[in-house]
Structure formats: C-alpha cells, structure tokens
Amino acid sequence: MNGVRTRKQPAQAANGVERKLNGHANPRDGGVVTIEATENIFLFWPNIIGYSRIVLAIASLYYMPLHPRTCSGLYSISCLLDALDGVAARRFNQSTRFGAVLDMVTDRCTTSCLLVFLSSAFPRWSIVFQGLISLDFASHYMHMYATLAMGSGQSHKKIDQSRSRLLHLYYNNRTVLFIFCALNELFFIALYLLSFSSPMLSPSLLPTNDKAAASAQPGNPSHPSSMIFATPGSAWAMELARANKMNSFWPWVLVGVSSPVMLGKQILNVVQLVKASKWLAEGDIKARRAEGLPKRK
Questions:
Q1: Which of 82, 107, 136, 284 is catalytic?
Q2: How far apart are CA 219 and CA 198, in angstroms?
Q3: Which of 50, 75, 90, 254 is within CB 3.0–4.6 Å of 60 for a Cys-Cys bond?
Q4: Residue 87 confidence (pLDDT) above 70
Q5: For 216, which DSSP code?
C-alpha cells in the first residue's frame, strides 16, 4: 500500500508547499517543492508614477527652448505627480528604498535641467544658478548618505527632532513638504516664463530694427543660434511670436509669491548639509575611538 497514493496525499502535499519571499527554493523538504513568491519592485504603482514623471520631464525639456507654455505644463504635471507617488505608496503599502531614491534623483535632475536653461537665459546670473544646483545636489547627497550610513538604513525622511527641528518639520509634515517643494519649483518656472515675456530681464525681447545691436545671449529664446527655422512662416516663428506676446504680469506675481519660500528652501538645504556633515563626523569619531585612534605615543 506504500506505493498507492490516496486522495488525501495530494492535498497534504499541496499543504506542504511553502511560499518564501527570499527568492530561494528548498529542495530538502522531503521531496516537497517550494514555490518562489517574489515581488517585482519595479512595477509597483509608486514607481510606475515615477517613470511617468521622467517621461514628462524629458518631454518638457524637449519643448523648453521654444515652447514655454507646453514646457511649463508638462513640467508642472511632472512635479505634481511627485505628491501622488507618495499617496500611492501609502495606499498600496508599496514604500521601497528604490522608489525613494528614484523620487529624489528625478527631483534633482529635473530641477537642475531647468536651472541650466535659466543659467543660459540669464548669463549674468549663471553663477547663482550654478550655486543653487551645487547646493541642491550636495545637501541631498550628504543627507541621504548620512541617513543610510548612520541611521541603520532608515529612510532619509525620518529625522529625529533632537537632531534638527526644522528638518523634522520639513520631512514629517506633508503639508509643509508639499508647499516648500511646490513653490520652490513654481519660482523657477515663473523665471522661465519671464525669460520669454519680460524685457526687464531679457532685453533682447525689446523691439529693434538693428540686428547687430540686438542681444545675442546664448540660450536666449529670442535669438537662437540655429537658422534652421529662419522662415518667417515656420512653426518656430509662429510659436516665438506668441511667446513674445506673453503677458509678464502673472509670472511676476508667481515670482513674488514663491520667492520667500524658495529662499526658505535654500536655507533648509544649507541646514541639511551642515547637519549631515556633523552627523557623519560624529560617526567618524566613534569609529576612530573604537579602533583606538588617535594612538597615544
């Protein structure tokens, strides 16, 4: 009877099947085959939203030199989706380290690309935009590295209040985080629109009949270096004509409203950079003491 399998035996064998999340099968369970149950992190909903942000950001960069309205719309949607991926992560319980890094890298890259354009549109202020790019990258990289190295792999948004009250409020209050991020981006978008609409900031927008006297600032939308679209009836000429008729009133209003928050965001970046540097230095001191350094002679 040992060679005869009853009806209960397949069911018992099925009950003995194990589902593991470590991605390894165990063939030693008396002939029971383990089923590998893994999750595809790359297809989590928050990460899919992150991919769509990248696509929209690339599309906005494509339209950035000559199509301010289209570019601003695509860029704004990409930024707004930054809040949606967090909602999706909490709704579907799909918070991951990959998603957090993807979100941060996307934010840094899109903002930097916009600042690079502003640097070329306003060359006299290029050193300011270059400094903002450097500060943004340095503070977030230092902060991310410090939380991973010193915080036992914890999220970069889990900041203890004793370490920094400002950073604790910034990262743990969703309303504060959204306002600072949204208005910071809004400030740079408004500056971008002013490069197409304000003669005060872009003197080349002033009408002139003297081509030699016209400003030829590199990257200025009114004076592209390429003559491919020189035909007066071309799509470039039509869009440029509409862009130059853009009213600068609302961009100036947006700049005025968002500039205090933008400045506050840069202060937070400085605080974040300093606190992360001190945190890493504390870890270095502890590590050196554990190794008996410095050695006394």
A1: 107
A2: 15
A3: 75
A4: yes
A5: -
